[in-house]
């Protein structure tokens, strides 16, 4: 019988925390399935992973895995934050794209101990990888880090423009959006992805998403970090545009399920920031379901005034809280301005603040009862799996539409977008933790059960992973 070579998959994420986190999980799933995997990082990202995460140790057990790096062309002292997203996009177009081409053409990362690349899995906003894949005659699968509802909405930018729904003015934020099929009854201007707030149609961000969405339909297939029971109605419509679509979510839960089978450790870190684990000791000392976990992820920023409003809201809610306050999340250091003494005292009594936390572990801790979140898709899925209701303060990309679904479709939390007032913060926290908790918990527990079934043996996400592996082997 002819021996078939092991497929060699190249995974290439956009250089940002949420993208890196989910695509490293995908890489581990492919490694557990016995494939050769090369994970391509920018040098800046890889240095941070090496410094703050355990990726070298974790992936060291897989002989078929290796990291490769390329430069992003930015200065060493560049922040590479989403405050400078235009710089990141520019570096992708002018430096990363040609460097990627040179790396893959003509030898496709072939080495003595592994075959050339037989499949590319690239971030959904890096559609230039499709051209490279065609040039070396291998399939290109795009990995979509956001929700299906976000992805679906991007297909109708032209329809929204034709209907006069884009662009919109600041006084039209609550105007109904009727051009996105399946969302006509609840979508408003303010719920659209953040780039849709552009005042001019030639805005670079708006044009980028429009172009990337159109280009993405040329990919061999797409992978989404979602599950059929959660976004089934949208997925059924999306497949008219993307016939070959694998749903593998919630990805962190699917990975944990496969780790159990392989007798691998259940948790790991893909963090680009230093984790402060002292918060876990603090949580161990708190009563069950008594703590509000407050985190806006790795890219959301706030003003000093907004920070004070949130702080007062947390304190005035009367609840215990664990607050992840990144050092770079506000324009100036906290030491550069005065914090009211009453906030310091209240925090000392029933709060805890860290720069960064092991979020997946925090959310499943028995002491945590709710999540005040930016509605990033990774965070939203992690909260669902943990069975936690949410209060949402979205800012960027898919976050506004995710938060609308949380409140109006899935009914597992409250949407506080475009508002930052201490009284509203306090009220919604009390609603989440006390007054309306029962109905929220019923809904989120149902979704948690559905997620668990999807990633378990026989579940749709579990089966889709097996199908993806089989297809990668067949395509190779």
Automatic annotation (TrEMBL):
Q: Does the keyword Nucleotide-binding apply?
A: no
Q: Which reaction does it catalyse?
A: 7-deoxyloganetate + UDP-alpha-D-glucose = 7-deoxyloganate + UDP + H(+)
> What's the EC number here?
2.4.1.-
Please give the CDD domains that the UniProt record associates with this protein.
GT1_Gtf-like
- Give yes or no: UniProt keyword Signal: no
- Entry's Pfam families? UDPGT
User: Could you say which residues form the signal peptide?
Assistant: none
What InterPro entries does its record include?
UDP_glucos_trans (IPR002213), UDP_glycos_trans_CS (IPR035595)
Alphabetically ordered keywords of this record: Glycosyltransferase, Transferase
The Swiss-Prot or TrEMBL record annotates one GO molecular function as: quercetin 3-O-glucosyltransferase activity
Record's family? Belongs to the UDP-glycosyltransferase family.
The name under which this protein is listed is Glycosyltransferase
């Amino acid at each position: 019988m002819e021996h078939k070579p092991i497929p060699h998959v190249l995974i290439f994420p956009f250089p940002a925390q949420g993208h890196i986190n989910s695509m490293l999980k995908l890489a581990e799933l492919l490694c557990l399935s016995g494939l050769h995997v090369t994970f391509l990082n920018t040098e800046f990202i890889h240095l941070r992973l090496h410094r703050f995460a355990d990726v070298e140790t974790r992936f060291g057990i897989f002989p078929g895995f290796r990291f490769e790096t390329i430069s992003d062309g930015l200065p060493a002292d560049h922040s590479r934050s989403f405050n400078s997203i235009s710089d990141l996009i520019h570096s992708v177009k002018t430096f990363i794209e040609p460097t990627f081409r040179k790396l893959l053409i003509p030898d496709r990362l072939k080495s003595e101990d592994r075959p050339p690349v037989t499949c590319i899995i690239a971030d959904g906003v890096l559609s230039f990888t499709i051209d490279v894949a065609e040039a070396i005659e291998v399939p290109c699968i795009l990995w979509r880090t956001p929700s299906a509802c976000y992805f679906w909405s991007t297909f109708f930018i032209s329809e929204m423009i034709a209907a006069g729904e884009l662009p919109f003015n600041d006084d039209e934020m609550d105007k109904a959006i009727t051009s996105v099929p399946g969302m006509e009854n609840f979508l408003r201007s303010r719920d659209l992805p953040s780039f849709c707030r552009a005042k001019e149609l030639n805005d670079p961000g708006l044009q980028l998403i429009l172009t990337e969405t159109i280009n993405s339909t040329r990919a061999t297939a797409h992978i989404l970090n979602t599950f059929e029971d959660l976004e089934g109605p949208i997925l059924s419509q999306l497949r008219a545009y993307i016939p070959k679509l694998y749903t593998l979510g919630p990805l962190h839960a699917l990975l944990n399920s496969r780790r159990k089978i392989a007798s691998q450790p259940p948790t790991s870190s893909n963090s680009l920031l230093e984790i402060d684990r002292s918060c876990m000791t603090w949580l161990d000392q708190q009563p069950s379901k008594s703590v509000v976990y407050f985190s806006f992820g790795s890219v959301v920023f706030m003003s000093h005034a907004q920070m004070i409003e949130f702080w007062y809201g947390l304190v005035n809610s009367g609840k215990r809280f664990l607050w992840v306050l990144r050092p770079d999340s506000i324009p100036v250091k906290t030491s550069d301005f005065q914090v009211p003494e009453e906030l310091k005292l209240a925090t000392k009594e029933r709060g805890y603040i860290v720069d960064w936390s092991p979020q997946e572990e925090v959310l499943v801790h028995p002491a945590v009862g709710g999540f005040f979140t930016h509605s990033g898709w990774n965070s939203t899925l992690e909260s669902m799996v943990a069975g936690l209701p949410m209060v949402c303060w979205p800012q960027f990309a898919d976050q506004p539409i995710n938060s609308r679904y949380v409140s109006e479709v899935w009914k597992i939390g409250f949407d506080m977008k475009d508002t930052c007032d201490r009284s509203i913060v306090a009220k919604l926290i009390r609603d989440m933790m006390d007054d309306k908790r029962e109905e929220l918990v019923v809904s989120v527990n149902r979704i948690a059960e559905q997620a668990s079934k999807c990633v378990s043996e026989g579940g749709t996400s579990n089966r889709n992973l097996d199908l993806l592996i089989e297809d990668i082997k067949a395509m190779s």
